[in-house]
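quick one, 322 residues, struct below
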Amino acid sequence: MKRIHGMAWAAPLLALSLHAGAAETYPERPVKVIVPFEPGGFTDVVARVVTQQLSSALGQSFIVENKPGAGSTIGTDFVAKAAPDGYTLEIVSTNHVTSHRLYKNLDYDPIKSFTPISKLADSPYVLFVNTKVLVQSVQELIALSKSNGAHIRYASSGNGSTQHLMGALFLAKSGARLEHVPYRGSGGAMKDLAAGFVETSFAAVSNGLPHVKSGKIKALGVTSTRRNAQLPDVPSLAEAGVPDYDAVVWLALLGPAGMPRHIVSRLNEAVRAGLSKPEAREALAGAGVDVAVSTPEELAQYMAQENTMWGEVIRGLEIRID
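---
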């Protein structure tokens, strides 16, 4: 009887030993990290910093593979259908929780089809205006947009893009009257803003800062509740009188649904260790983003909140992309 009792304890102890062993050996081969955007973009730059840190921490190659197209849904669909063994991961941006509301017939759910690993970074956008627009504050811009005969446009990188949605959220919360002008990419939108062909745009700090320094555009407000270190004198939109405006572009590391907990934990620990290093923080700051790591549980909660918030914005716009 005592022997049977001892054997009953042996099974869970063996399982724990095997579990610990699997955690220590992962990864045993190179890991593919999908970036669902073109090389050289915002997400891609951050992905290369993160994968370098993961490779160093875990002693195995983490290789960025760009799979752009259809507003990031091609690469994301690929990851959703991959084996949940920890060897196919993805770095996603805010539009991970908006694309399914814009594109028809997607085969994945942004929450249920993925395993959250860690939030990585976030960055505010900035409300920029061309210097020919004779306003000095957010409230002056709002007032001007409501005046008779005013025709103020805001440029974005396309219908349903984060730039578009940041602007739509601003209109909803401020009552401003701005006309949306979609471009094919953020580069063209910023070029025309600097040239004065459009009056305003919500854009990344790194995209607009060179034109601020050249005197072609000016920054009126940042979209996060905290100010940006590169534009310390520019108030948040909430400070500038737009109630409850708080939105950032965020990046996160995900895997397919059903990943083993020990692999998720190992990756989360490696992300935290890697992004705590000064060189990693400096590299991300150079890309215009701040390190913002989380537990898997915190990321799951955050994504659910973002899914709800942006869903309400998109329903108000009544837009779909075929």
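The radius of gyration is 22 Å.
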